[in-house]
């Protein structure tokens, strides 16, 4: 009987040592208080945000070497996600890995990390790389200790942006448009007659105000048409 108990005990230890590694994918767990914020440090609020885990075995300093876990946690407000226990394939308890949290946000009706939802505004951001020593059952998953708060980018369009009249201040016309990944930058052009090709490029430099680029130009005295052209 004693021999049987000893064999069972050894078997349990061996099985536990080969159990896959786990961690608690949350930025609000005990010992972890690292909210994701808006681009300007304010609290997140939107239709959805998705946080996913990227990882690589061992100590890694290059984020391009990380693998996507592909099990995102969806959240909508206040910058906290609670994805629960995540199993890291091909790992064991006690193994050191390097992880990074990457977050993307978008508008309602588009799935997380989709590439075919133009034209909509997206935000994205990522944490620093942090080392994690994984746990294995029956121990509870380890928390993402060492994770620091990080902010998302301003809302960015994946399509060419549309210019809109933001306001009229005195004799100045303020136009605005969102950042876009369709080109590195855009310039504003104007034309008083659409039957011609006499588009004139404005020389004023756009500035980022809030989540949009803005440019202030003299208010036209008559009809004027405006367009954005990529540099």
User: Count the helices. How many?
Assistant: 1
Strand content: 35-45%
How many DSSP-defined strands?
18
Helix amount: under 10%
Unreliable spans: 3-15
How far apart the termini lie comes to 82 Å
Mean pLDDT: 84
Blueprint of the fold:
Elements: H1 2-17, E1 22-26, E2 36-37, E3 45-57, E4 67-68, E5 73-77, E6 82-87, E7 96-106, E8 121-126, E9 130-133, E10 150-151, E11 156-157, E12 164-169, E13 172-177, E14 186-191, E15 200-201, E16 207-209, E17 212-218, E18 225-230
Parallel strand pairs: 2-10
Antiparallel strand pairs: 1-6, 3-4, 3-5, 3-7, 7-8, 7-9, 8-11, 12-13, 13-17, 14-15, 14-18, 16-17
Structure, described:
This protein is mainly beta. Helix content is 7%, strand content 41%. The protein contains 1 helix and 18 strands. Strands 3, 4, 5, 7, 8, 9 and 11 form a 7-stranded antiparallel sheet that branches. The protein has a 4-stranded antiparallel sheet with strand order 12-13-17-16, with no helix packed on it. Residues 3-15 have low confidence and may be disordered.
Descriptive keywords:
mainly beta; Immunoglobulin-like; seven-stranded antiparallel sheet; four-stranded antiparallel sheet
Overview in brief:
This protein is mainly beta. The protein has one helix and 18 strands.
């Amino acid at each position: 009987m004693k021999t049987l108990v000893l064999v069972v005990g050894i078997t349990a230890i061996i099985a536990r040592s080969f159990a896959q590694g786990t961690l608690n994918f949350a930025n609000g767990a005990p010992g972890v208080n690292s909210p994701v914020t808006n681009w300007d440090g304010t609290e997140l609020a939107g239709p959805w945000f998705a946080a996913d885990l990227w990882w690589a075995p061992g100590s890694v300093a290059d984020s391009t070497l990380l693998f996507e876990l592909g099990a995102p946690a969806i959240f909508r407000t206040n910058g906290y996600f609670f994805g629960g226990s995540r199993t890291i394939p091909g790992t064991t308890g006690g193994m050191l890995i390097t992880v990074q949290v990457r977050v993307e946000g978008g508008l309602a009706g588009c799935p997380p990390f989709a590439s075919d939802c133009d034209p909509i505004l997206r935000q994205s951001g990522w944490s620093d790389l942090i080392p994690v020593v994984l746990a294995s059952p029956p121990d509870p998953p380890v928390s993402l200790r060492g994770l620091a708060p990080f902010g998302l980018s301003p809302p960015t369009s994946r399509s060419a942006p549309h210019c809109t009249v933001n306001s009229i201040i005195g004799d100045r016309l303020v136009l605005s448009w969102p950042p876009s990944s369709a080109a590195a930058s855009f310039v504003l052009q104007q034309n008083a007659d659409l039957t011609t090709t006499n588009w004139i490029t404005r020389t004023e430099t756009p500035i980022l105000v809030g989540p949009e680029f803005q440019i202030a130009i003299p208010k036209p005295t008559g009809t004027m048409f405006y367009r954005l052209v990529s540099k």
